[in-house]
Automatic annotation (TrEMBL):
Keywords: Hydrolase. It comes from Armadillidium nasatum. This is Bleomycin hydrolase. GO terms for biological process: mitotic spindle midzone assembly. Residues 506-531 are annotated as: Disordered. Pfam families: MAP65_ASE1. One of its GO terms (cellular component) is mitotic spindle midzone. Gene3D superfamilies: 1.20.58.1520. GO terms for molecular function: hydrolase activity; microtubule binding.
Length: 531
């Protein structure tokens, strides 16, 4: 039903009601002034109470008069009751709104409220009571924290807001939004001061601990002092500042000793962070013998810088350590592969365990290299600079490790070949002397590709701290190929063991002039007379 239809229906109801009243008054033969009085009373009562006025039909005049008087008395009682309830609710609402700083519910005291208006006023009061409970809880929580901050900061009680907080658990004046905003601002300011004080206190404690370590202060003296500064209050911070001044004076008296200790500590930090020579040269005091307050502070600052750098990028350094550990394991396995005696000592599943380690390295080494490259790339994106390992980018660092590894294997190969070949005489090669050795050409190896791949395991050098390859042989490497081992014959184990024992106890004969040691071992001869 739209508004226009509702208005028309309402007007029709009012019109019909008025006509009925007029008919009743005509039957009662009421004079004009009485009709006007009753008309006004009826309209006022209906409008004030919001009730419909229904006149029973077919009632005698006396009964109708009695009914109307009774109805009038009921309406007057209802009016009185509603007015009393309105005054009570209105007073409660105004008190709550004044305490909370809110606007009271708008309702006139002169008009008699309808039942719906009273219900809406009650709902508004209920909302204000809930809001009061929430604000009181917020106030009490902030109050406890503010008092804790004041105690920790050891500040005097100043300001009206702070005094009100300390003196009352429940504020009697008001809990307005502005009051809570001021309280929250005070809370945030004090919290910021406390956090700054704690950070400063921890910084001083760290400096004191560092100086204690340098001065070799006993644990008993340390505990004795720490018991006097159990918290981060202003008084405790002041005591720590005085202690720091005393320790700095002792440090100056032992400056030379401390510089040497810091130099050793700095070397350890450089080793953990894989610092290259160029980066080390940036610290000018390291190669100077200067003993001064400036040098001491410079060493302390440099040590602290690299410690923070290590902690910030610990994931990268742990990955490098893991990679080098796998690389060393690979070289150990390559070294074992050169020992043929391991094929006969198979107790405890040694060969099986060796094969498991070999497969593990082949699987984890490429993954570790890839992970290291990704972490260094992420560092470059975040800082705008490449991550330097031992003075090189990660790609160059990995390439150098593999190049050095290949170079060592190539050198071993050349040494084996030089031992197995007969010595060159003037008859075999004219123009060559014993002092002149033919040059062996080595093809370059694709070591950069091997930064991401793991070759067959047979090599030697340690990768923890590999020196840079000399410039003359840096790029002349040959990718090592898998060596073919002499196939094991099908002789019985007993004969092999006997041969081993006989060779072990039989003294070696002097070498001939024409054969080297390796050539004598490889010379074909019969074992028929061997016992």
């Amino acid at each position: 039903m739209d508004l226009k239809s509702f208005e028309e229906e309402l007007c029709q109801i009012v019109r019909s009601t008025v006509l009925k009243l007029e008919d009743e008054w005509d039957e009662m033969d009421l004079p004009k002034h009485q009709r006007e009085t009753r008309r006004i009373a009826a309209y006022d009562g209906l409008s004030e109470l919001g009730l419909s006025y229904v006149i029973p039909e077919d009632l005698p005049m006396l009964e109708l008069d009695t009914y109307l008087k009774k109805k009038l008395s009921q309406l007057q009682d209802l009016k009185k009751k509603r007015l009393e309830e309105l005054i009570e609710l209105k007073g409660k609402d105004e008190m709550l709104c004044r305490y909370l700083g809110e606007t009271p519910y708008q309702i006139s005291r002169d008009l008699i409220p309808s039942e719906e208006s009273l219900n809406m006023l009650k709902e508004h009061i209920s909302e204000m009571e809930d809001e009061k409970v929430r604000r009181v809880e917020t106030y009490q929580k902030l109050r406890i924290e503010v008092l804790h901050f004041v105690e920790q900061l050891e500040k005097p009680l100043e300001g009206e807001t702070l005094l009100d907080i300390v003196c009352s658990v429940h504020p009697e004046s008001s809990l307005t939004k502005n009051f809570l905003l001021d309280l929250r601002k005070l809370h945030n300011d004090l919290e910021f001061e406390v956090r700054e004080l704690e950070a400063y206190s921890l910084e001083i404690r760290e400096k004191i601990t560092s100086l204690w370590n340098l001065l070799k202060i006993s644990q008993e003296k340390r505990d004795s002092f720490l018991s006097t500064v159990p918290s981060h209050t202003y008084s405790c911070v002041k005591k720590m500042e005085n202690q720091l001044i005393e320790l700095k004076e002792l440090r100056i008296q032992n400056m030379g000793k401390f510089i040497e200790e810091l130099k050793l500590e700095l070397q350890k930090c450089w080793e953990k962070c894989f610092v290259g020579d160029d980066q080390k040269k940036e610290f000018a005091y390291f190669n100077l013998d200067e003993i001064s307050e400036e040098a001491l502070e410079a060493y302390e600052s440099e040590v602290l810088k690299w410690k923070k750098f290590y902690e910030k990028n610990i994931q990268i350094f742990e990955t490098v350590e893991h990679l080098l550990s796998l690389f060393d394991t690979m070289q150990q396995l390559e070294e074992r592969a050169k020992d043929p005696s391991r094929l006969f000592n198979t107790r405890g599943g040694a060969l099986l365990q060796e094969e498991k380690e070999r497969n593990k390295v082949k699987q984890e080494l490429p993954h570790a290299q890839e992970q290291l490259i990704l972490l260094c790339h992420k560092y470059s994106l975040e800082n705008g600079l490449p991550f330097i390992i031992d003075g090189e980018t990660v790609e160059d660092y990995l390439s150098r490790i593999w190049e050095y590894h290949d170079l060592q294997k190539e050198r071993e190969k050349i040494e084996r070949q030089s031992r197995t070949k007969p010595p060159i005489t003037p008859k075999l090669a004219k123009g060559l002397t014993s002092k002149r050795v033919p040059q062996i050409v080595i093809t370059p190896a694709d070591s950069r590709k091997r930064c991401r791949e793991v070759c067959d395991i047979d090599g030697k050098p340690s990768a923890k701290r590999i020196a840079k390859t000399p410039s003359g042989v840096h790029s002349g490497l040959q990718t090592p190929q898998k060596e073919f081992k002499t196939p094991i014959t099908t002789r019985s184990v007993g004969k092999l063991k006997a041969l081993s024992e006989r060779n072990h106890f039989t003294p070696l004969q002097p070498r001939t002039n024409n054969l080297s040691h390796d050539e004598s071992l490889q010379a074909p001869f019969s074992y028929k007379n061997f016992k």
